[in-house]
Amino acid sequence: MDIEVRIRGLMMDPATNMPIVVLKDVGSxxxxxxWVGIFEANAIAIEIEKVAPPRPMSHxxxxxxxxxxxxxxxxxxxxxxxxxxxxxxxxxxQGGELMTVDARPSDAIALALRADCPIYVSEHVLQTAKLNMxxxxxGPTAEELRGWLEGLNDEDLGRYKM
Length: 162
What we know:
The chain is α+β, with helices and mostly antiparallel strands. Helix content is 35%, strand content 35%.
């Protein structure tokens, strides 16, 4: 079963200085962090803030190609977690045909924001991510980290600046 999530925030991990996209289950307080690259985080932040870049970015290009090919992004699903790496699938419809395309979650999220389509996480991925959500050995426990993420407020998350 897939669980719909929304972006709760975009922030920098204070320990690794890497961007984190915080996804939140729309039906509960469950959150799931995904560490992403700086360029991918920037592409997500630009769309969240509705900043129009002077030239199309890669995700804008992908959206424009879909439009010109009469294809529609129906949803994205973060569907797997292997060796601490998340995997995602784009669900595209062109004409009457539904197809899936493998994607990195950060790219899928950036494209979903541009296409205004829902973001889902497979239930098993959400459960696995919750179990694996632990910091370094001397760092916080998984429960402490989960509590910290769930307790973030808008001020903590900032204005999505990278």
